[in-house]
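job 3f2a | input accepted
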Amino acid sequence: MALALSISRLALPLKHPFKIARGEESVARTALFRLRDDGVEGLGEATPIARYGESLETVEAYFASHRLAANDPFRLEALLHDGIPAAARAGLDLALHDLIGKRLGTPLYALLGLDPADTPLTSFTIGIADPDTTLRKLAEIGDHPVLKVKLGLGSPQEQVETIAAIRARYTGAIRIDANEGWDVERAVSILRELERNEIEFCEQPIPAGSPEGLRAIRERVRIPIVTDEDSLVAGDLPRLIGCVDGVNVKLAKTGGIRGALAMIHTARALGMKIMLGCMVESAVAASAAAHLSPLVDWADIDGPFLTAGDPFSGVRYERGKLVLPDAPGLGVTERARA
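job 3f2a | predicted structure (338 res):
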């Protein structure tokens, strides 16, 4: 029997508008993959990123014009070849791993030889907002132990004051993410001001493509520097040696689990720390990422926190710690519709 793939669009309304330095959204839109083989269905999710020329339309168009390269779900090397665009490949990759796990009756973490007790804490992200809205969002998260705050817009003083206001009320770990919103001198100026607030690290302070700019920042501030837009796949990492302290790994950018594993092992070989991140997406993609989390130092897998009506359940959270589902494959289940 041939593998049968269907793709549908998934709209995920958000609890709050989510704003970063590049834009704002109130509804996240992803592509849901259903891959069937001999009566078993695997679920996957593609989260195309416009910055890299991807969209729901490009994901759909690729599979409308390209047949799957094999009918055996275990032939991953053939099925997940490099010719498939990253987001489309990620959706298929997740569905294949879910399908294989279900066929074998084994959770993904067990297929990878990982201990589910070794998952890290995940951060909770607060998007860019005015001071009153930011503090209301902070109050909503309660005692969550790790916070990531989006910066990159507004005056340096406003950004510094935002973090100071949060730190005055919050005792947990704070990470910041400028999403390429600064230049080198502004990054150095702001980060030096923020050092007093015990910032765990700063993610992607300047536009991607300038490793030496990252090095210049790292050499002048005490806050560790982590890349995101500068580190999409494993092959991007060698040029970042000595320029950053860590890298962010996202399934949507690496092309799925296989690409993420390659990037994680490459980062380890190069002595870099690793954060496992996500886009704003459902529990399908978030759970897939969570299964890899015992391999990393930091996690930012908070998509299910941000959505108002996720149609799936999977990874859970206990005071910020990722709790993996103990069911075959990704361990994701579809919620009953009201």
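job 3f2a | The chain has two domains: 4-105, 111-334.
job 3f2a | closed
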